[in-house]
Each structure stands twice: as C-alpha cells, then as structure tokens.
Amino acid sequence: MMKPICRFIDFETGKIGSNAKITKRYLSDLEGVFRDIDALRSMFNRDILVYEVHEIVVPERAGEITHGTSIIYPGKVGDEYFMTKGHFHVRAGGEVYLCLKGEGYILMEEKGGRSSYSKMIPGSLVYVPPLWAHRTINMGTKEFTCFYAFPSEVGHDYESIEKKGFSKLFLERDGKPVIENAHRDHQDSFLG
Amino acid sequence: MMKPICRFIDFETGKIGSNAKITKRYLSDLEGVFRDIDALRSMFNRDILVYEVHEIVVPERAGEITHGTSIIYPGKVGDEYFMTKGHFHVRAGGEVYLCLKGEGYILMEEKGGRSSYSKMIPGSLVYVPPLWAHRTINMGTKEFTCFYAFPSEVGHDYESIEKKGFSKLFLERDGKPVIENAHRDHQDSFLG
Q: Do the Cβ atoms of B5 and A127 come within 8 Å?
C-alpha cells in the first residue's frame, strides 16, 4: 500500500524540495516550437534554460493524481515569448493550473480548432477540460510558475502539437505584448 | 463540449471569486466531530463558522478533476483545534493538498488503522493516496487555507469517520499545540 507523500514548493523559485522528477527544456530541445528558427539557432551558443517541470511521481493508474510545478523563465526567441511545448492528453483527462508567481497566459485548443486563452497572475485558476491541448507562455519579466494536477493515467501527446502548432502567437511588438493569429482556420474565445 | 473554466483564488482570504460552489460548516453542523460536547454546545449561542469550501464544479466522470479551496478559521472547541469533518473517498482516488496560508496539520488514516500526519505551512504539498481518509486541522492564529484536487468520480464517504473517528487528537495544552492518541489501536508515522 502506498504511503502519503509530503513535499514543499518554494513559492519564490517554484521548485519542489526533494524527490521530485525534474525535466529541463533548453532552447536546443525546442526546435519547431518557436517560429523564428534563425533567432533560435543564433541563441544556441549559450544554451538557455527555457522552462523546467518539477513533478511528484505517483503510479500511472486510474484514481491517482500526477502533480507538480512548471517554471517558465522570462525571455524571447526573436519576438516570441518563452513558452512550453504544449500537449494533448492521450486519453480524456482534465488538468488544473494554478498560477503561483509571475505573469503569463494559458492557451488551450480543441482538436477541432476552437481555442481559448486566459491571462494568469498569482491566484489565477484554470481548468483545462478533457481533450483540450494546452500551453503556458511567460509574458512577464520574472519566472512564470504554475502548479498543475491531472489524472495520472491520461498520458501525453506532444506530437499532434509538434505537427500542427497552436493557432495563436504570443509576441512582443514595439515593447508591448500582443496576441496574434497564426494564420490557421479556427474559432476562438478570449476568457479574460 | 465543455469549455475551459477560468477563476481566481484570493490567496489572502482563500476564496474563489465567482461561480464556485460554497459549502459552509458551522459549529452546529459538527456535533460528533469534536470530543468535548459540552464545550461545543455552550458555543452554539453564537453559531460560529468553522470552515468553508469553495469548489469548482466539473462533471462527475472519469478523467475530470474536482478542485477548490478549504478555509479553516482559527479557533478551538474546548482544547481541540478547529478542523474539517474528514472523509474517505467511496472509490479509490488520491487527493492533492497544497497549503496557501496559515499553519496546520493534515491527518491521514487507512481503513486498516495506519495513520500519518504532517505539518503544513504555505508551500507544503501533500499527496493523500487512494483509500486513505484525511482531515485538516488549523493549529495557527489565522485562516489555514489549502488548495485541493481529486478525481471527480470518486465520491465522499463521511460516515465511516463519523462512526469511528480518527486515531489522533490535535489539542492545546498549557497554551501549546500537542498531538495525542485517541485511545484506539493503530500504527502511526510522523511525516515531518
């Protein structure tokens, strides 16, 4: 029988003290994610950490909840803000995001094409319904940290996003953050 | 098809702005929870709010995550600190607790009798495995607020706890918090 797991999130750094599974995504892991390939490659000489994920590992079976933190560092590739790769779940499963630090957006998209996005600041709480892809984007000047939780058995599908991308771009124009269409057919809604 | 849900947790009050389902538990709802029945009844003339739960309502089916906040106010019934009723899940399902404010404990117990407890301060992250009952206790001087998430389809079993109680008491003795056995057979472990 499994025992309780007791850990600690440092709200300042977003890191989970001990025994978390840590995944680090550097610029060189993110070819195909950012649109400006030349800008991306020109930054490879100092391979920058774009985001990291600290995860509490639980059994991958029905009834269990995988949870952890994602920490996106501030930065841009060309005019595009640092962000996560984004994923669908393989099986239908919702996901909760709670912003703990910083300022950014969550972008969500159905396989059919409908998209939604919402600004997140500390306290923002977003429920990504089953079958919606999701990505988070740091549009601030410090770390953008979210706590997340999802059903452990649903798995990750990164490939669909790698092939098709999302329908929105999060860019800096004249020193200001803007959200633009990525020139694909879609419906979308702005959730605040 | 369900749409994303975007809400906001006020980290100071623990409350979720709009459209949350709010459950309030007053002293008069908690007969049988606290051991000092006379102290409990003597407090009924000013029926005090012990805790409240703000919950995001999602469909009760596999793959969905119910989530929200529990806010326990500071106080005691006799020498026993304010706490939640506590519950098992009807079907096997884990639950995540993340402390956002205050100071307290989480007490967890298997049906067989093994118990665990852990101190929680802001940042403390506890995973209650499937089939463990759980209760949270405010041992501080302000609100003790936790964010929680669990699989929506697992249901709540309050009755087993109402009948048998938990194996630990969280009391104030000579102005100091202490944890005592409730004189039942059990194994237990202290998780820090």
A: yes
